[in-house]
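Below is a typical protein record.
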Amino acid sequence: MDSSWEASVTDSINAIYLLFSAYLVFVMQLGFAMLCAGSVRAKNAMNIMLTNVVDAVVGSLSYYLFGFAFAFGDSNPFIGTNFFALKDIPSSSYDYSFFLYQWAFAIAVAGITSGSIAERTQFTAYLFFSFFLTGFVYPVVAHWLWSSDGWLSPNSSSLLFGSGAIDFAGSGVVHLVGGIAGFWGSIIEGPRVGRFDAFGNPVKMRGHNATLVVLGTFLLWFGWFGFNPGSFDKILVPYPRMVDQGNWTSVGRTAVTTILAGSTAGIVTLFGRRLLVGHWDAMDVCNGVLGGFVAITSGCSVVEPWAAIVCGFCAAWVLIGLNILALKFKFDDPLEAAQLHGGCGAWGLIFTGLFAKEEFVLQAYNSGKTQTIRPSGLILGGGWGLFGAQIVQLLSIIVWVSLTMGPLFYLLQKLGILRISADEEVAGLDISSHGGYAYDASQEESGPRFYGEYLRMQHQS
C-alpha cells in the first residue's frame, strides 16, 4: 500500500475525530444554557438564555479576529502575533479543524463568567466582557499552556522546572479563567437585591426549574467526552514498542477518569449536603458532578482511574467548603460558578502535580517515547518539578485574570453599564430588558404582564 495514501487516510481519520470532538464541546453551550436557565428565577430565564447565545456569537467573531492568533500564533512565550483572522491557515501546524475545536473551548469560558453575574447585569455589559474575555484574556493563557512557544507549556523547548505545567484540557486555562473572571464580576456588582437580609443572613433564592438543571448537567457530561478525550487532537498515533496501544488507548482511559471523577464528586456531594441541610438536593448533586469534571480536566490523561476517584472526592469538599465561605462573606454567585469552576479548577491543577504518572505523561506529550524523562506527580515520587510548575500556573492565571477582568468590570460599573437598577432587578430582566417573560405563567400576580405595563409602572413611579 502506498505510504502517502496511508498518511492521507490517517490524517483524514484524525481530522474527523477532532471535528467530532469539537461538535461535542459545542453541545456544552446548550448544556450551559439549560443549566443557567434552570438555576435562575423564572423572571430572568430569557435573559440568561440570551446571554449564552451572545457568548457564542460574540465569542466566535472575537476568537476568529484575535483570539486564535493570540493563543496559537508564533513569536514569543507570552502571546502569539500571527494568524489574525485565520490568515495563513491552514499552515504546517494548524488547520480549520483545530481552529474549530479551540473555538468551542473559547466560547465556554464566557459562559462560565456569565453565570456568576446572572440576574443583575445589563445586557450591554455582556457584549463588552464576552468580546474581551474570548478575544484576549483567555487566549493569552491558552498560549502559555497549549502553544509550543508558551512559557508554561509542557511542549516548550525550555521547560519550566524541567517539566512544564500540565493542564491537558483546561482546568486552569478554561475553568479557572472563567471562574476568576466571574469572581471579580460578582464582587464588583455586589449581591442580588434580597439575597441577604438586614442582619446579613442569607435568603434562599432557588432556581426555578430543576428539570432544566438536570438536563443541562447531562448535556455537559456528554460534551465533556469531547472536552477531555478530544484534547489529544489525534487518535491514530501508535506508541513505540507497544503494537496494541496508541492514543486510542489513552483516549479511552481519559474518558474513564472523567466519569469516575464526576461520579465520585456527585455521590460525595449528595451525602455531604444531606448531612448539612437535611434533605437530598438534586441541584447540589448536579453541581457536585460538574465540580468533579472540572477538577479532573487538567490531569485526565495522565492519572490512573483510582486517582480520579481521589480527585472527585476532594473536589466535592472543595465545592461544599467554598459555598459555605461564600455565604459567610456575603458573596453572591447564582450559578456557584466562581466556586465550582474557580475552586475545583484550582484543585485540579494541584491534583495533577500530585498524581500524574510518568508513563501517561510521556504518552500524552511525547507520543509514548520512553527515552524521554519527565517529572511526574509528587506523591508518586516524581519530585517537585511538576508540582512547582502547577503552582506557578495556578498563581499566574489568578494574577493575569484579576489584572485584566477586574479593571474591566470596575470600569463598566463606573460608566453605569454593568448593573441594572434595583427596580429593574425586582421586576426581572425578562420584562425590564427583553420585552416579556420566558414563560406565560412566570409572572407573579402583582407583577406586570407585558413590557408596556412595565413601562407605564415605571412612568407612574
Observations:
- The beta strands are 238-239, 242-246.
- The first strand starts at residue 238 and ends at 239.
- DSSP finds 15 helices and two strands in the chain.
